[in-house]
Every structure is written in C-alpha cells, then in structure tokens.
Amino acid sequence: MRPTTPLRLAALPLLASLLTGCSKLVVLNPAGDVAAQQGDLVVIATVLMLLIIVPVIALTLWFAWRYRQGSRHAETDYAPDWHHSTKLELVIWAAPLVIIIALGAITWITTHKLDPYRPLDRISEQKALPENVKPLEVQVVSLDWKWLFVLPEQGIATVNELAAPVDRPIRFTLTSSTTMNAFYVPDLAGMIYTMPGMQTELNAVINQPGVFRGMSSHYSGAGFSGMNFRFHGLSEQDFEQWVARAKAEGQPLTRQAYLALAKPSERHPVERFSSVEAGLFDRVVGLCVEEGKTCMHQVMALDASRNRAHRSARALEAAAAQEICSADDTLPTFTARP
After folding, report:
1. Which residue range or ranges hold the Cytochrome oxidase subunit II copper A binding domain (predicted)?
2. pLDDT, average across residues 90-113
3. In this predicted structure, what is the pLDDT of residue 24?
4. Residue 13, Cβ neighbours under 10 Å: how many?
C-alpha cells in the first residue's frame, strides 16, 4: 500500500530531524544568552526581508491570475498608454528603503553589542551580571584534528572535552597550532576563527545544564569531519568534581607532551591532563614550543630594533652629508684651482 500525500507531508519533519541529527533548531533555540541574541537577530532580519518577499510573490501570482488569457480584466483594464504612477513609485521605493534602513540600524547595533571581544554585560535576559564576577578563563588550541582546552585558573587541560559552570561568564582565548580553523558551539555563541601565530577572543555564557556539541566549522584537512568535542554545562559543584577528576586521572602537559599531542590524529579520544607547564599557551601562540626556537614576539622585537638602528644610521649619514655639502663649502669645492 502506497503512502498517501498527507502521510508523506507528515513524515517531512521527521526526515529533516534525521538528516540534521538533532531534534531542534539549535541556532534558534540555544542554551546560551549570546547565541540566543544571535538567533533573535536571524529571526528579525528574516521577518523584515519577508515583508518585501511575501507581498511581491503574492502580487505576482495575483496579477498572473487576474490578467490571464480570457479574463474580463485582461480586456477592460488594458491601458497601453499608461507609463507612470507617482503613488506606485513611492510604494515600490519607500518600503524597501525603510527596511534597508531598519536592517542597517539593527546590524550596526548588534555588531557592537555582540562583538566577541566585548565582555558580557548580562548573564541572560532575566539575570543581570553580578558585580565583581570573574570569568572562567579558557585557552583553546586547534590541533590536527582535535581541540586542546587549557584552564589556567584550575591548572588542568583536556582534549575534546570542556566544561563550564552554568551562568558564569566564559572568556575564551584561541589560537591554532598549524592551520586556520573555526571554533563553534552552536548553543554557546557564534563561531570564532583560530589562526597560528595569532590570538582571538570570544566571550560567552551557558545558561542551561546539559551536554552540548562543539565542532570545527572550517575545513582543515582529512580529519575535519571528526574534529568534534563535548561541552558540559554544569553546576558549580559538578564543575569542581570535573576538575578534580582531571587532576586525579591525567598526566602533566609539558612541552614534550604537547609536541606529541600536536601530531595529526583523527577522532582523538577524550584526554585529561592534571597540570600544565607554565607559559605553554604563550609559546603555542608564539610558535616556539620546540626547545631553542625563538618566539614570534622576540623575532618581531629584533626586527623592530634592526629597523630603528637602520633608520638611525641613515639619519646620521644624511646629517653628515648635509654638513659636508653645506652652502659655505659649495663654492670652494666647485671652484677651479689656480
């Protein structure tokens, strides 16, 4: 027995759910306040654009039906000499102009408000940011093909797993070991790029407990499809237990351990480190984890000092030349000897 049309239509949402691998639209119903504000922006922008799209489509269909062949309107309303209507021109141009202005204003405001480098000014729409609250510092390194998370305050590190207390601001500082990538937790905030030799920043907060999916949203090679991690939203007590577990089970993350970890691997299992060598993240940013390698900031400082010395030497040469070829010396120099 073949399924009827209503049954086919009823199966479409289930099919979409299976194809996407999730039971809800995460972008429009996230668990974090920053992502929620970004989802609201998507909805507002879509509705504003539909204010033009829907009437245009409806009028196109209505005109096609009203002036179809054989319709009385096709004969009675025929006006071959008509060429202009001021009222119609005002409607055609004014409505899109107003929508563009509204979209521009909203985009300008939210671009500054949701700047990933901007510290949070609230926990959620219903909850203000407590005074003197200290964000959870998380240092992120994108490796081939896994994620390394360093929590300097707690003194631990993890691979492909991260946890944070609910309703506590999180400040991510991110970099990459070899190639550019993109850090993305749809329930938390928008994606932010990671680049070798550079550091980016992301401020966010998780408002609901649970286990959320994190991923790489930028293709970076063969193991890209398995470059996922789990993000846990926990209570303060559960977060402390998670930290204690890492300290009890893990091994120290030294420079040698990092170099071994940085070698390419696909679908790397969750790994925990009980301690982190001091200054490791800064060395990763400076591309100088290897013993004896000069860090990028030191190379730039040397280049700057060389440039200053070069400019000083040229200035001295110019001053000496000016003194030799002064106006008083010009006449004797070019006067013929007797």
Report:
1. 133-245
2. 91
3. 56
4. 9
